[in-house]
Design brief:
With about 290 residues, this protein is α+β, with helices and mostly antiparallel strands. The protein has two domains: about 160 residues, Immunoglobulin-like; about 120 residues, Serine Threonine Protein Phosphatase 5, Tetratricopeptide repeat (Alpha Horseshoe), CATH 1.25.40. It is about 30% helix and about 25% strand. The strands form three sheets. Strands 1, 5, 8, 11, 12 and 13 form a six-stranded mixed beta sheet that branches. The protein has a five-stranded antiparallel beta sheet with strand order 2-10-6-4-3, with no helix packed on it. β3 and β4 form a beta hairpin. The longest helix has 16 residues. It is flat and about 55 Å long. The N terminus is likely disordered.
C-alpha cells in the first residue's frame, strides 16, 4: 500500500461558478440534508500543471441550515490523495479543524450552494494514476451548525509526462527554491513561460502568479506587491489563484502596516468568515492610528 500524501488544504471561499471552468467529472456524497460534490475540470494533467479541484457544499434540505462554511483560514475540508488503485487509503489530519471559532458558520437557504477551488500539491505527484477524496466535517465546539462527517467517493485522475516542447516549463512549475538566488532564477523562468503565451499550453494562466510568488519567497516585497496586484486584477477568472494572489497581497500590505490598502484588497474578496475577520482587524488598526487633526 502506497500513500502519496494527505493534503489538508484551507479553503478560499467563493460563491457561484468560477468563470471559464466547467467541471465535467464529479462525485457526490449526501447525508442528513447536506451534499458535498467534488469535481475536476478534466482527468489528465501534465507533470507540474496545477491540478484544481472544485468542492461544492449544498443545503439539500427543505429548511434553512447553518453550515460550517468552507473558508481559507478555517479548514473544514480535507483532501486525501492516494494511488488510484488504493483509493480508500489515507486518513485526514485530525488537527485540521481545531482552530475553528465557536461562532463560525454561514446560513444556507434551501437549495443554496457555495463552492471553492483548491489546488493539489503537484510537486509530490509524478506520472501515474491517482484518486482524490474530500472530507467535510465540523467539530462539536462550533455552535449552532450542522454536525457530522461526509466523505466523497474517489475521483480519479492521471499525471502524464509533458511533450518535449513543454518539458522545461513543467520543470519550472515543479521546482522549489532553496535560496534567494534560486527563487529569483525561478521567477525569471516563470517570466519566460509568460513570454510563450498560448504556446505554454495549460501552464499559461498560472505563470504570472508563480513569478510573483517566487519574488515573495526571495524577499522582494515591492516586486511581489506589484505583480500580485497585476495578477489579481487581470486574472479574476482563474480558479483559486486569482483570489489567492489578492489574499496574499492583502496579507502582506497588512503586515507592512498599510492597513487602509490591505482593507481595500480584502473588501474585494468573496464574503466569508476570514474576509470579514481580516476587514475587522484592519478597522481596529485604523482606529488605533492617530488622526491628522
Amino acid at each position: 500500500m502506497k500513500i502519496v500524501g494527505i493534503l489538508i488544504l484551507a479553503a478560499l471561499a467563493a460563491q457561484g461558478k468560477a468563470a471559464g471552468v466547467q467541471p465535467e467529472h464529479s462525485v457526490e456524497i449526501r447525508g442528513d440534508g447536506v451534499s458535498i460534490v467534488l469535481s475536476l475540470p478534466k482527468t489528465s494533467y501534465m507533470e507540474g500543471e496545477p491540478v484544481l479541484v472544485k468542492i461544492t457544499l449544498v443545503n439539500i434540505s427543505d429548511n434553512p441550515q447553518r453550515l460550517a462554511e468552507p473558508d481559507y483560514d478555517w479548514s473544514v475540508l480535507s483532501l486525501i490523495v492516494s494511488d488510484s488503485a488504493d483509493s480508500q487509503s489515507g486518513q485526514p489530519d485530525a488537527n485540521s479543524t481545531i482552530a475553528l471559532p465557536a461562532d463560525y458558520g454561514w446560513n444556507y437557504a434551501p437549495g443554496q450552494a457555495r463552492s471553492i477551488w483548491l489546488p493539489l500539491n503537484v510537486r509530490s505527484l509524478c506520472t501515474g494514476n491517482y484518486a482524490v477524496r474530500a472530507e467535510y466535517s465540523a467539530p462539536p465546539h462550533v455552535k449552532n451548525v450542522w454536525h457530522g462527517t461526509l466523505t466523497t467517493p474517489a475521483l480519479h485522475f492521471s499525471i502524464v509526462a509533458p511533450p518535449e516542447r513543454l518539458a522545461q516549463v513543467a520543470t519550472a512549475f515543479r521546482k522549489f527554491g532553496r535560496s534567494t538566488e534560486d527563487w529569483r532564477e525561478l521567477a525569471q523562468s516563470h517570466r519566460a513561460v509568460q513570454a510563450q503565451g498560448e504556446a505554454a499550453g495549460p501552464f499559461a494562466p498560472y505563470a504570472a502568479f508563480f513569478e510573483a510568488l517566487a519574488y515573495r519567497a526571495a524577499g522582494d516585497s515591492a516586486q511581489f506587491l506589484k505583480l500580485a496586484r497585476l495578477y489579481a486584477d487581470s486574472h479574476k477568472d482563474v480558479p483559486f489563484y486569482g483570489l489567492h494572489a489578492r489574499r496574499l497581497l492583502a496579507c502582506d500590505l497588512y503586515t507592512q502596516g498599510k492597513y487602509a490598502e490591505a482593507r481595500a484588497e480584502y473588501a474585494k474578496l468573496p464574503d466569508c468568515y476570514s474576509t470579514r475577520s481580516h476587514i475587522e482587524m484592519c478597522d481596529r488598526r485604523l482606529g488605533e492610528q492617530p488622526s491628522d487633526d
